[in-house]
Specification:
Blueprint lengths: L2 H10 L4 E7 L2 E2 L4 E14 L5 E13 L12 H14 L7 E8 L2 E14 L2 E7 L8 H4 L3 H5 L16
Parallel strand pairs: 1-7, 4-5
Antiparallel strand pairs: 1-2, 3-4, 5-6, 6-7
Length: 165
């Protein structure tokens, strides 16, 4: 999801509670805060020596131990207010991919993509998910697509005799 798409979604549902589902049936606690918004520029070189660059918006969610008794999720309106204030201080790149950074005591820190959203009983639920790492230079490295889908591999992706760096 692009940053602009997130803002449009939030604008359409200002009257709802905002929930984040970080894994199937696992929700960020009601005591969450938006603690940081990162405007990231990625400038990369893949294992096939190809360069790439792109922008990302990363919104960090944190469960506050001081608000553990909080029984209500943040409202979409409040979240939108926080995000708009950030945008006044540091403008967003609206076509940047948006991700949510989150962890808790049983879930490792991860940058999660927005898979989809849904409305359920007055709540806007943003469903998050991981994206597996992948070799961007399969042709250069001589990696066949089916070999990447196997659970285990006898040889590493980029062998010493391959064309990877």
């Amino acid at each position: 999801m692009k940053t602009q798409d997130l803002f449009s979604l939030l604008e359409q549902h200002k009257d709802k509670a905002l929930l984040f589902e970080y894994a199937p049936n696992c929700f960020v606690g009601t005591n969450y805060h938006i603690t940081e918004v990162k405007h990231i520029t990625i400038d990369s070189v893949d294992c096939g020596a190809q360069t790439d660059s792109w922008k990302e918006t990363i919104i960090q969610l944190w469960e506050s131990p001081n608000d553990i008794e909080n029984s209500k999720h943040m409202s979409v309106l409040k979240a939108l207010g926080i995000l708009k204030k950030v945008g006044q201080m540091k403008p967003y790149i609206l076509n940047a991919e948006v991700k949510f950074e989150y962890s808790n005591s049983s879930f490792h820190t991860a940058q999660l993509f927005v898979n989809q959203s849904k409305i359920d009983d007055g709540k806007l639920i943003i469903q998050l998910g991981i994206e597996k790492t992948d070799c961007k230079a399969k042709d250069t490295c001589g990696i066949a697509e089916p070999a990447m889908e196997q659970e285990t591999q006898d040889e590493p992706c980029c062998s010493p005799t391959g064309n990877c760096c």
